[in-house]
Design goal:
The complex is a heterotrimer.
Chain A: H1 4-24, H2 28-52, H3 57-87
Chain B: H1 4-26, H2 28-42, H3 58-68, H4 79-95, E1 105-108, E2 113-116, H5 125-134, H6 137-146, H7 150-181, H8 186-191, H9 207-222, H10 234-237, H11 247-272, H12 291-310, H13 318-344
Antiparallel strand pairs in B: 1-2
Helix pairs in contact in B: 2-3, 2-12, 3-11, 4-6, 4-11, 6-7, 7-9, 7-13, 9-13, 11-12
Chain C: H1 2-22, H2 26-46, H3 50-75, H4 82-85, H5 90-110, H6 128-137, H7 141-162
Helix pairs in contact in C: 1-2, 2-3
The chains are: A mainly alpha, B mainly alpha, C mainly alpha.
Chain lengths: 100, 345, 168
């Protein structure tokens, strides 16, 4: 039987990979994908806590988190399309002006 | 060391998986023949006639032709994804059948045990089917993108927008059935419709027929059949997302499409037409018809219905298709959920 | 047995996660992310939560990733060159991520659970969907309403952001 430490370690590794993706990559769409990876690593640890602490709260929170992530992706990609239309750029370091 | 009972259980599951996979792999052969025959007779011609009596071996000839044809990979294509895409279309279409029940259980005489006619009865059955069926879209999107051709890409874009939009309506219709049956498991959903034809969900008035209409229209759009076959609109897009595919890979896409049609027919029967339940008890002293025959009969009727539609209806325009999905089906579904909820209190 | 499956799923998840952040083509990235999400769904099954697994496949793999692919295809974001794929602060960012990893790993490894166990034992979780539904509609009804509001705002927001008026 895998223990809670196993699940937390997996969650941590995925979190680090996602974080590295956000910090390293320039392409904004890959940054968004790395964000999703972070969301998922957190979901794993929530579900693991829920199972090992024998409580339902974690699972319910995973459902909320998945819902919010879906909303976040919809808005994020809409912003991306808008930015691409006006600036023709998808790299995060080229989008350094606040004026539209 | 696992004991004998566990081994037999595992063996039974393996046998069921193999049988279902073999049926699904061979099913498109009679279905293509039937479809062309139906088309012929609707359009007042004979249909396939030359290969075998009434052209019944036409499907075999087609299969041999497809297997021997040269398999072309376009030079500018993304080779890896181009080869992966047909498999991505095929696997979800087959994986859905893990939780589809074909009947309750039958007793096998030799080993003296009851064998269930489904691989697994999950307590999230209908949700699993919707989730896995939704994955079929990746074959379409990645195939269209990897072909590196404008017709394929446009077909893939249309297809993804269409399937995402209609997935909402199809899920709402499934939720309606779940509200009526109080369970996500397909075995329980069919069980709740047993007794007589009056217990079938299609006759759960007034919401049943509405849910069925929504489910039928949305699933036609999900499996890209006429009148919603915009992704492969011959008139404007070549052949849509599989323009660049030929030979074996093309036939894998076709296989997935036919399996999807069978899946949708089965789901219509399971969710709305009582599954394997007989419409009424036989009062006469004739022996009752086995449940599996009712099931196969109903599913065949639906398959014929879909073929009939294909050669009768014209194609929708793309903006009309989107309007129908978002401005008609989804609002009706929301109202219908309220009515169903009120009836179930 | 369960341990074996856990290791298979985790290794596939970690490898595909590394590929997500390291390949150059966004479409390939999305494909590897899909694989990773499917492994996470498998983890939920191992954690006796088939409902979560189905929701994960339904929402993340079936909808969110399709949106990503849709955006990549509409904007035609092809391959980029390697030196263009990272920006100037990459080394610093990578180092920070690794430092954070070691700190968190120390905490996870030496941590201890002191919270009391709840009522949802493995037998109670057998009716997974019912248990989750009951919790969602009673104890968590206000967060549930807030989340549905967030979805509505996202829907309206996404439409207004990308809608182009006909007059210009």
């Amino acid at each position: 039987m895998p223990t809670i430490t196993h699940y937390l370690a997996l969650s941590l590794i995925l979190f680090t990979i996602g974080l590295a993706g956000v910090l390293i990559r320039r392409n904004i769409i890959i940054v968004l994908m790395s964000l999703e990876l972070i969301f998922n690593s957190v979901n794993i640890s929530l579900a693991a806590f829920s199972y090992f602490l024998q409580s339902i709260n974690g699972v319910v929170f995973v459902i909320f988190s998945i819902t919010v992530a879906a909303a976040e992706v919809a808005i994020g990609l809409a912003l991306l399309v808008t930015v691409y239309r006006t600036r023709r750029a998808v790299n995060v370091d080229e989008l350094n002006e606040m004026k539209g | 060391m696992p004991d004998v009972t566990t081994l037999i259980e595992v063996l039974l599951i393996v046998i069921k998986v193999v049988v279902i996979a073999m049926i699904l792999f061979s099913l498109p052969m009679p279905l293509t023949w039937l479809e062309r025959k139906v088309a012929g007779h609707i359009q007042v011609r004979l249909g396939p006639w030359r290969v075998g009596p009434h052209g019944i071996l036409q499907a075999v000839a087609d299969a041999i032709k497809l297997m021997l044809k040269e398999d072309i990979t376009p030079d500018k294509a993304d080779k890896f994804l181009f080869r992966l895409a047909p498999l991505l279309a095929l696997v979800p279409a087959f994986a859905v059948f893990v939780t589809i029940p074909f009947g309750e259980s039958i007793s096998i005489p030799f080993i003296e045990r009851d064998v269930t006619l489904y691989i697994a009865d999950m307590n999230v059955g209908i949700l699993y089917i919707l989730a896995i069926a939704g994955l079929g879209i990746y074959g379409v999107i990645l195939g269209g993108w990897a072909s590196n051709s404008k017709y394929s890409l446009l077909g893939a874009l249309r297809s993804s927008a269409q399937m995402i939009s209609y997935e909402i309506a199809i899920s709402f219709a499934a939720i309606g059935v779940v509200m009526i049956a109080n369970s996500l498991s397909l075995v329980d959903i069919v069980g709740a419709q047993s007794g007589s034809i009056l217990n079938w969900n299609i006759l759960y008035l007034p919401v049943g027929p509405v849910w069925f209409a929504i489910f039928l229209i949305a699933s036609l759009a999900e499996i890209n059949r006429i009148p919603f076959d915009l992704p492969e609109d011959e008139g404007t897009l070549g052949a849509g997302f599989h323009t660049e595919y030929s030979g074996m890979r093309f036939s894998l896409f076709m296989l997935a499409e036919y399996v999807a049609m069978v899946t949708v027919s089965i789901l219509c029967v399971l969710l709305f037409f009582g599954g394997w339940n007989a419409p009424f008890d036989m009062p006469l002293p004739i022996p009752p018809i086995p449940a599996i025959f009712w099931f196969i009969g109903k599913v065949s009727a639906f398959i014929y219905f879909f073929m009939w539609l294909r050669f009768t209806l014209p194609r929708y325009r793309y903006d009309q298709l989107m309007t129908l999905g978002w401005k008609v089906l989804i609002p009706i579904s929301l109202v219908n959920i309220l009515v169903t909820g009120y009836m179930r209190i | 047995m369960e341990q074996l499956f856990f290791y298979i799923f985790s290794i596939v998840a970690i490898v595909s996660a590394i590929l997500v952040v390291s390949v150059r083509n966004p479409v390939h990235s999305a494909l590897y992310l899909i694989i990773c999400f499917l492994q996470v769904a498998a983890m939920f099954v191992l954690l006796r939560s088939p409902f979560l697994a189905a929701v994960q496949v339904f929402i993340y793999v079936g909808a969110v990733m399709v949106l990503f692919l849709f955006a990549v295809m509409v904007l035609d974001l092809g391959k980029e060159r390697l030196k263009d794929s990272m920006h100037s602060q990459s080394i610093l960012g990578g180092a920070l991520a690794i430092v954070l990893f070691f700190i968190a790993f120390y905490l996870v490894y030496n941590g201890d659970i002191v919270a009391p166990l709840g009522a949802y034992t493995e037998t109670a979780l057998m009716k997974n969907t019912e248990v989750i539904g009951a919790a969602l509609y009673t104890k968590y009804i206000y967060p549930f309403e807030v989340v549905s509001l967030i979805l509505l705002v996202a829907l309206v927001g996404a439409i207004t952001l990308v809608m182009r008026h006909k007059d210009n």
